[in-house]
Amino acid sequence: MDIISIVIFIAVIGLTLGITYWAAKQTTTASEFYTAGGSLTGWQNGMAIAGDYLSAASFLGIAGAISLSGFDGFYYSIGFLTAYLVVLFLIAEPLRNLGKFTMADMIGARFGAKKVRGAAALNTITIVLFYMLAQLVGAGALIKLLLGIDYWIAVLIVGVMMTIYVLFGGMTATSWVQIVKAILLMIGTIIISFLVLLKFDFNFIGMFDAMRTATPHGEAFLHSGLIYKDPIGLISVLIALVLGTAGLPHILMRFFTVKDAKTARSSVIYAVWIIGIFYVLTIFLGFGAAKFVGVDAIVAENAAGNMAAPMLAGVLGGSALESFVAAVAFATILAVVAGLVLSGASAIAHDIYGQIIKKGIITEKQQVRAARYAAIGVAIFSIILALGAEKLNVAFLVSLAFCIAASANVPTILFTIYWKKFNTTGAVASMLTGLIVALVLVALSPSVINPVEGAAFFVGDPIFPYANPAIISVPAGFIAAIIGTLVSSKRHEADEVSYAEVRFKAETGYREPEQ
Amino acid sequence: MQKTANLDYEKIINSSEFKNLVKQKRRFATPYMIIFFIALFTLPILTGYTNILENRAFGWLTWTWVYSLSMFAMVWVFTSIYMKKSKDFDKDIEEILKKNIAK
Question: Which of A99, A112, A253, A424 is deepest in the core (most CB within 10 A)?
């Protein structure tokens, strides 16, 4: 590890700790802890959404996938970005209007039953744990490669940092860490892309010509087919990505950090520009790495191609740029896991403890204390899991998290807002069916049972053919919602709020004056 | 939460202004969502079952990439349209709120 790396890493750690120190002074109430008091502006939240969303899987994973498999690597970029149309057109504003701190609050605004909130909290915790495990294991491996320190030390550094941000600075610290990360990530990506374009004499179309002969795949590099042999499997992945974003608890939670639906809307616009430009630039990262680093060198460092972007930075800009990009990757991971800790903690402390166990009768002080304990609990639990999972291939957990979000959360979120007949039984049936079907099918899929030794947990022929089960589990979530609703349409649940009230509030943002 | 100041929600959502707002919103959003989903899922069908996108559009920039990049453009265009259109809805919503709440 050279002196530049050490300086840049310490700068990132120092800056984020400074933010946390500043944020801690303004984090005393539950609303400040969970939502920064709803004080963020549109551009701030837009940047934070980008910082929350663009994980190491995007920055390192997609750059690597494009460099190794050409166009098919870019499919993730397409799915991850276009998902925001669903978020903007169908979810963002009603969510902001109905909810308070969490996704379960929004569903709870219509269905007050404990089992509804419990199921929503269960989904949140499951998604957060899977997503977090993928991030932490990836972070450990990455920092081990970048800095040459042991895996367990790397996981502990990331784990301790994320805990400090959330514990002391709550959503304010988390948001600003995400904003800083989004800026750093964009700067790093734009510099590398510029250098790649420079190498191609700013000839965008000529670059494609050059790529035709730059890799062992030849012309196939420019077409789909190197990763996805079966279009149905690919469609399944796209369903998970494009609907799942609208059900990811740590992304949905970001919409409560702004004051109203209008600001929630404008934050999506800012996010879509930042995220979109980033994903377009992944083309340059991937192509540049394939051409100037070379497929053999990339695979030699990491079989999945995760080191492609930092290696490319090294080739084009020397060790200073490589260190900077490594620090960007580090900041990227920190910002994402902080958001995950916060949303996991909100499900445990606010939904389960505050609303289900304490029935909402809980003082401000108790709420904040519970949130802090829950944050520590979530952090410790995921660190322990990550320490035990070093040798496991957990990259698939990111797309699994999207799949669970799409199958278990999105049908209920949509029907809560838009379907008059939807009821408590339908909501619980949908959330549990979506979750269970997704989990069972993944357990039977090539991500878990694979004929290639070392590719998954078990060696053998998978029972379910597609790595991502969204094509089955998403319809299952919707069908369960409909069947659950229809079979219980005669039953009247006491805790249901009339659809008229929910619809009116969802559209207008009206709230009853608190007594 | 005490609910002493409840509004007659049933009456409001059945009012012509509110019904009109919901209808207008649905009419606006539905085509965009349909176009989006068709455009998105046509891409894997075309790349998976046909070779037509493998033809070159400009130099070695194939239609696969042109299609994909136009998906990005679509997202930016649709979100901008949504932003603009929402301002009209905001006015309607304000009026409904004024009429029913501010007393």
Answer: A253
